[in-house]
Specification:
Mean pLDDT of chain B: 85
Organism (chain A): Cladosporium halotolerans
Structural class of chain A: mainly alpha
Largest sheet of chain A: 2 strands, antiparallel
Number of strands of chain A: 4
Family (chain A): Belongs to the eukaryotic ATPase epsilon family.
CATH architecture of the largest domain in chain B: Sandwich
Protein name (chain A): Mitochondrial ATP synthase epsilon chain domain-containing protein
Radius of gyration of chain A: 16 Å
Structural class of chain B: alpha+beta
Oligomer: heterodimer
Strand content of chain A: 5-15%
Distance between the termini of chain A: 16 Å
Shape of chain A: flat
Strand order of the largest sheet of chain A: 1-4
Distance between the termini of chain B: 71 Å
Number of helices of chain B: 3
Pfam family, one (chain A): ATP-synt_Eps
Helix content of chain B: 25-40%
Number of strands of chain B: 9
Low-confidence stretches of chain A: none
Strand content of chain B: 35-45%
Mean pLDDT of chain A: 86
Largest interface: A-B, 28 and 30 residues
CATH topology of the largest domain in chain B: ATP Synthase, domain 1
GO cellular component, one term (chain A): mitochondrial inner membrane
């Protein structure tokens, strides 16, 4: 039997991110405010082709659309 | 002169005492397990000797004592209970991760988030359950529903231990 998140096309990393996010949101206010900042990330990447930099994209957005595609195809 | 004689007489006793007390770097007392409980931002336990650790493994709840066979267990989001040397116990809710039992009574638990039960707000859990249930039963994308179901699993386990 494989886990529900796996059959939905999510990665283990994504599963852990969601589980930790919900744990942080369940904390009492003072701890929550300090903890929630840990869940934030902002990374950009660009693909280089023929020596030229492509468009810089947000990693989080690219991940979101990637997961959505994986969920549809599963 | 007299004091010198006393010191000499005391020395053999001192030597045997030291031999008994000396412990190698990696040794653990026979009936203890050396626990490291680490989060990316904090180490809750750093190679501390404890009596027993109960973990919510994916394959079922399990209690780990000294001299456990080496094992790697994936953890469900749930409660870890640590029975300390002095007899008291501590409970932490972990968001999921891995527990590794190494030879020589060593246990490493790695998780992304972990907090003591008193740090959680029952009200926040209740509100989030209502919200997640709405999404899980709604007509959102498959991914949204899958994510809401994961949230529900965590929240329900959290609500069960908060009671």
């Amino acid at each position: 039997m494989s886990a529900a998140w796996k059959s939905a096309g999510l990665t283990y990393n994504r599963y852990l991110t969601i589980a930790s996010r919900v744990v942080r949101r369940s904390l009492k206010d003072d701890k929550r405010l300090a903890a929630e900042r840990r869940g934030e990330s902002d990374l950009r990447f660009a693909k280089w082709e023929n020596g030229k930099q492509g468009e810089a994209k947000s990693l989080n957005q690219a991940n979101e659309s990637g997961f959505a595609q994986a969920a549809q195809s599963s | 002169m007299n004091a010198f004689r006393v010191a000499r007489a005391a020395r053999p006793a001192f030597n045997t005492l030291r031999a008994v007390q000396r412990r190698g770097y990696a040794d653990v007392a026979a009936d203890k397990i050396q626990l490291s409980l680490a989060l990316p931002h904090q180490a809750i336990y750093k190679s501390q000797d404890v009596t027993q650790v109960n973990i919510p493994a994916e394959s079922g709840e399990m209690g780990i004592l000294a001299s456990h066979v080496p094992a790697i267990e994936q953890l469900k989001p749930g409660l870890v209970e640590i029975i300390e040397e002095a007899g008291g116990s501590k409970q932490f809710f972990l968001s999921g991760g891995f527990a590794t039992v190494q030879p020589g009574s060593k246990l490493s638990i790695n998780a992304v988030e972990g907090y003591a039960l008193e740090d959680f707000s029952a009200e926040a859990v209740k509100n989030q359950i209502a919200e997640a249930q709405k999404i899980a039963g709604g007509s959102g994308s498959e991914q949204d529903i899958a994510e809401a179901k994961i949230e529900l699993e965590v929240l329900e386990s959290l609500q069960a231990v908060l009671k």
